[in-house]
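Justification of computing resources. Each target in the renewal requires a structure prediction run like the one illustrated here; the chain below, 245 residues long, is used simply to show the kind of job we budget for.
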Amino acid sequence: MRLGILSDIHANYEALSAVIEAFKSESIDEYYCLGDTVGYGGSPNECADLVRKLVKATILGNHDAAVAGRMDYSYYYEAARNALDTHAQMLSKENLSWLTDLPYQIRLEAINVLLCHGSPMRLEEFEYIFAPEQARECLPIFEDLGHITLIGHSHLCKVFALTKDSVEELPPVDFNLEPGKKYIVSVGSVGQPRDYDNRASFTAYDSDKKRFEFKRVEYDIETAADKVLRAKLERNFAHRLFIGV
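Resulting structure tokens:
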């Protein structure tokens, strides 16, 4: 089975549309979204509509949880809080209800894949994994991890190979899974990459070949940024799209 995995769309319709178009040449059997369909961008409803139509299942992200009233986000910085409040007002009842029902994780037992937004350790706390020491915190639940555990949240492409007592960071390039190891892979962001590459990030996993692939695609950043400004959101949310941070 060939999976299309995307995450952290953040209401960027132009990036999501480009990714969906690029996926058409990837022979995908099932699509999954790892969360944060909303937050930051100018098109929360349009993105929610597309994701609901495309994917087999979506994971709850922290921005999704905030907009749906499932977490306290009072400690977020002001611009992020304002974006979440704005999106909560913009979303249709159907899309808000959809966010309210999203799960914290999904386990694809048949192909040994675990999907979650942040660290699988404490799901409701949405902790990051972008460094080996953070991946090392998952060693106590090594047996509960999938052969590959796919996460988002950091907006970075990262790969960590785990044994029962070790963690090794690998370069974020296409790779084949080895038996005896487990992998935690951060899939990057569709709508707000933060690795100084402003192209939308998306990924694919072939469960038969045990092969994981990172992919990027250019999109209409000017239009996406303009929608942020027209929604009267923080100007930096628009500017950072051009830089990829």
